[in-house]
Write a structure and sequence with these properties.
The longest helix has 45 residues, at 434-478. This protein has 5 domains: 21-100 and 119-149, 2-Layer Sandwich (Heat Shock Protein 90), CATH 3.30.565.10; 174-281, Beta-Lactamase, CATH 3.30.450; 318-459, GAF domain (Beta-Lactamase, 2-Layer Sandwich); 480-567 and 585-650, 2-Layer Sandwich (Beta-Lactamase), CATH 3.30.450; 661-888, 4-Layer Sandwich (Phosphatase 2c, domain 1), CATH 3.60.40.10. Helix 1 runs antiparallel to helix 2 (57-75), helix 2 (57-75) runs antiparallel to helix 3 (121-129) and helix 2 packs parallel to helix 10. It is α+β, with helices and mostly antiparallel strands. It has a 6-stranded antiparallel sheet, with helices on one face. The N and C termini lie far apart (90 Å). Keywords: Hydrolase. Residues 180-212 form the PAS domain. This is SpoIIE family protein phosphatase. Residues 283-302 are annotated as: Disordered.
Length: 894
């Protein structure tokens, strides 16, 4: 077959990266086994992270996973993965050695098949996520490649503000100091400029190595809802707070924070600080006098404050854009607080995404209904002015308990669709009128499209990251059938990626109560306290309704416990132990004090448990996280139920297998007996080899060692038939030949399920002179070996036909005597046929091992033979093995 190429969505001038020059490459090969898919994902992820291309990692991992799965699972060949880097794109190639599985060149995307059909989904994903992709064939391999363009990265510039008249320029001191302070990842000061020393009065030696929080008065001005620790973690942040100077006074400052990385890759934060009234030095726009309604600018004018700060955050920094929006809205209307909510896709709820002047930790990601009630101002779809919230309680649920009295809210709309709501509130009543609502609505209209564009970009990144997360989760869950390990994986995948803590409840059957099976917290020191708290409250109801539902019981119980602990502390005289108890209780309350949600674990139309996720004090889940958790819960439920079914079947299998083994070896006067049994295959206790030793009548004992053709359950079934038939027939008084002839007929009666059987059966009579008389029938089995006291080894019986092949058997028994000190060794062919390459232990090798066992007990002989067999080859045994050793001990000498 000649070389063929398929190019999709444009053509490349270079068959590898277009016109770009390759600047780096990385390659790896993966064997045709299931675990190679996860290894390939890790290789691509590590490669792109090393190149610094984190923006496209999720897409690359998903596409690589699909294509490598096609190669190693469906095609069953080695997969070769090659990553090529250029200046503006990354190309990844996945090749396999199965060119016959070609895709016709005429086939279009419309004919690739259903996404659920194997074989077409990988190419559909390429078409959806890659900028270019294609398939190439040669006579020896097939290669699928895709190209991901690198997004343009912001260079840190700001949109320039309008030219201002001289009389509108901000007034500053004769000299403006811009302090430069650098903070490491732990919040410690690592750089302190001369301007910082002049502004705050501290010499650098006094502050280096100390925490910035030792000097910050946070917040100094109203409207800063983010904590300083959170602000220092953001990629960009601007706002007001205070710095305590060397003279003890708090100096109001305006700060601009930028997150950077040093040459070693460690993150740090650079803080630019000026006096608060000089904020224009760092702030993009200047807020001049607010225009009245009659002189509002038109859509093309840049006089409104909202025009000039939109470009300040990075294009994909939605949180930064929203935080800047609420700060500008608050300042524009001279409010005490402001908030911005984004609408869900169905426009039924609004989710708090940014606020200033409000307790943001409590409000972030909280949800309120779009339709708050009846009346003109009952919907977030219309501008609303509330002059006094005490007169209309519940009109603004977000402001309950905040002390705000008046509020103006306006909708954010894009092409007539509600996308959010913007509000400004004040502590005094009657602060706002329709004129302020009109100004705020005008600003909201200017910002709505930017906000929606950034929201959609964030949502797309979240969904792609979610897809990558679910691919990894599914692979991990599919890799185990152990129930406890599945529970641990469920919790470890959710904490801390989706939640701060997680608890898994399981339900054994429909009549059982939910049982707390696993608890995990991102802070290991809080796991025990959290588990104790959850064990004291009733578990959530096992409701099969899909989706997450809020569960308030843990937070309520934690708060009650903290309150009781605080009240009991009054008047007690054990301060150390008391303080520790109070600290533990309050820490537990803080750990579960936020929103807690429950997702049902439903598998095969039955609720088998609940997945409980929690946030710390007063925090909420965002809707996208709950949707991802719901998707994960479906996969986890099926994995957990599969582990349950596997455990049940393993328990049944092991119980049945144990029933096929003798209950115990009887004590035979004057004879030492030892048995070693090894069944081949993981989880098998019984296979095709078997043994038995049982009393027949007073002074007479029967013994048997046999090998059924094959291994596994079918062979074990014949094993059970043989062992029970031997005992029954021997105790009915039949001799050895009659016993085996009747067993042969019973095996043949099994029809298609019958299997041939090699069997050594004997009867043993201990004698008063210290010897033992044996009657043996060896039906196709390896001959027993006799070890004499002088070290000679010889076969102890003659071979006869095996069982389960012929109807008419003429068997006979042989009578022999074991003298004191003699050993009789009986084994199955798993011992003699032990192989290492072309070498086999064989009968001669076994005889050599037995020759060196003179004077050993029966147990020592069996152990030495087993060690010799295990050492003969390095691979695990592929056949069952049974060893039966009997020894007549020498009489004790006085």
């Amino acid at each position: 077959m000649g070389r063929g190429n398929v190019y999709v969505d444009g053509s490349d001038t270079d068959t590898r990266t277009g016109s770009a020059v390759i600047t780096a490459r990385a390659a790896a090969s993966f064997d045709p086994v299931g675990r190679s898919v996860a290894s390939a994902r890790a290789f691509v992820r590590d490669t792109l992270q090393g190149w610094g291309y984190t923006d496209i990692i999720d897409d690359a991992v998903v596409l690589t996973s699909e294509l490598v799965t096609n190669a190693v699972v469906h095609a069953g060949t080695t997969a070769d993965v090659l990553c090529l880097r250029s200046e503006d794109a990354v190309r990844i190639e996945v090749a396999d050695r199965y060119p016959e599985r070609e895709i016709p060149l005429q086939q279009s995307l419309r004919t690739l098949g259903s996404p659920d059909r194997e074989g077409g989904r990988g190419l559909q994903l390429c078409a959806a996520l890659a900028s270019r992709w294609g398939v190439e064939y040669t006579p020896t391999f097939k290669q699928v490649w895709f190209r991901l363009d690198l997004p343009e990265r912001p260079v840190g510039t700001r949109t320039a503000g309008p030219a201002l008249p001289v009389d509108l320029l901000p007034v500053t001191d004769p000299r403006v100091h811009v302090a430069v302070v650098q903070i490491d990842r732990e919040g410690a000061i690592t750089a302190w400029s001369d301007a910082a020393e002049s502004l705050f009065g501290y010499e650098s030696e006094k502050v280096l190595g100390r925490q910035l929080t030792d000097f910050a008065a946070w917040p100094h001005t109203p409207g800063t809802g983010t904590g300083i620790v959170e602000a220092l973690q953001l990629s960009r942040w601007e706002g007001s707070y205070g710095i305590r100077g060397a003279d003890g006074r708090v100096i109001p400052v305006y700060a601009s924070h930028l997150r950077v990385r040093d040459p070693e890759g460690d993150p740090s934060t650079v803080c630019l600080l000026v006096r608060d009234h000089e904020r224009a030095v760092l702030q993009s726009p200047h807020r001049g006098p607010a225009p009245d309604a009659a002189t509002l600018p038109d859509a093309g004018t840049a006089a409104d404050p909202f025009d000039t700060f939109i470009g300040s955050p990075a294009p994909d920094d939605l949180d930064g854009l929203l935080q800047r929006t609420v700060e500008r809205a608050r300042d524009m209307l001279d409010g005490d607080a402001a908030f911005l909510l984004l609408a869900t896709d169905d426009e039924t709820e609004l989710e708090v995404r940014a606020s200033t002047g409000l307790p943001s930790a409590r409000q972030r990601f909280a949800r309120v209904p779009v339709e708050a009630g009846t009346g003109r101002y009952g919907s977030a779809r219309m501008p609303a002015v509330h002059e006094d919230l005490t007169v209309v309680p519940g009109a603004a649920p977000l402001l309950n308990g905040t002390g705000m009295r008046s509020v103006v809210t306006v909708p954010l709309k894009v092409e007539g669709r509600l996308t959010g709501s913007l509000g400004v509130a004040a502590e005094a009543p009657g602060r706002y009128s329709n004129e302020e609502a009109l100004r705020l609505q005008f600003a909201a209209d200017r910002i709505a499209l930017n906000v929606e564009s950034a929201r959609l970009g964030e949502l797309e990144r979240l969904r792609r990251g979610s897809l990558s997360f679910l691919v990894e989760a599914s692979d991990l869950l599919a890799g185990t059938l152990d129930r406890d390990q599945t529970l641990a994986l469920m919790a470890q995948m959710t904490v801390p990626t989706l939640a701060t803590w997680c608890a898994v409840y399981t339900i054994a059957d429909q009549s059982s109560e939910p049982y707390l099976s696993y608890v995990l917290h991102e802070d290991e020191d809080r796991i025990d306290g959290l588990k104790a708290l959850l064990q004291r409250i009733d578990p959530p109801d096992p409701v099969p309704t899909p989706g997450a539902r809020v569960w308030n019981a843990p937070s309520e119980a934690a708060h009650r416990a903290a309150l009781r602990t605080s009240m009991r502390s009054l008047g007690l005289g054990e301060p150390t132990r008391l303080a520790a108890g109070i600290g533990t209780t309050l820490a537990t309350a803080s750990a579960v004090g936020g929103e807690t949600v429950v997702l049902p674990l439903v598998a095969r139309n039955r609720v088998i448990g609940m997945l409980t996720l929690g946030k710390p004090s007063e925090e909420h889940f965002r809707q996208e996280i709950l949707e991802l958790a719901e998707d994960l819960s479906r996969r986890a439920a099926l994995a957990l139920d599969n582990a349950r079914l596997y455990s049940e079947r393993m328990a049944i299998s092991q119980s049945l297998q144990r029933s096929l083994l003798p209950p115990g070896l009887p004590q035979i006067p004057g004879v030492e007996v030892e048995v070693i049994y090894r069944a081949a295959g993981e989880g098998n206790e019984v296979g095709g080899d078997f043994y038995d030793l049982f009393p027949i009548r007073d002074g007479a004992y029967g013994f048997a060692i046999g090998d059924v053709c094959g291994t596994g359950p079918e062979a074990a079934a014949v094993t059970g038939l043989a062992r029970h038939a031997l005992r029954l027939l021997a105790r009915e008084g039949f001799g050895g030949p009659a016993v085996l002839e009747r067993l042969n007929a019973a095996i043949l009666d099994e029809g298609a399920r019958s299997r041939f059987l090699t069997l050594l059966y004997g009867e043993l009579w201990p004698q008063e002179d210290g010897s033992a008389v044996l009657k043996l029938v060896c039906a196709g089995h390896p001959l027993p070996l006799r070890l004499r006291q002088d070290g000679t080894v010889e076969p102890f019986a003659e071979p006869q036909p095996l069982l389960g092949v012929m109807d008419d058997l003429e068997l006979y028994e042989q009578t022999m005597t074991l003298e004191p000190g003699d050993v009789l060794l009986c084994v199955t062919d798993g011992v003699t046929e032990r192989r290492e390459g072309t070498r086999m232990l064989g009968d001669d090798g076994l005889m050599d091992v037995l020759t060196n066992c003179t004077g050993l007990t029966a147990g020592a002989v069996a152990s030495r033979v087993m060690r010799a067999v295990e050492r003969f080859a390095t691979d695990a045994p592929s056949d069952d093995m049974a060893i039966l050793a009997m020894r007549v001990p020498e009489p004790h000498k006085d």
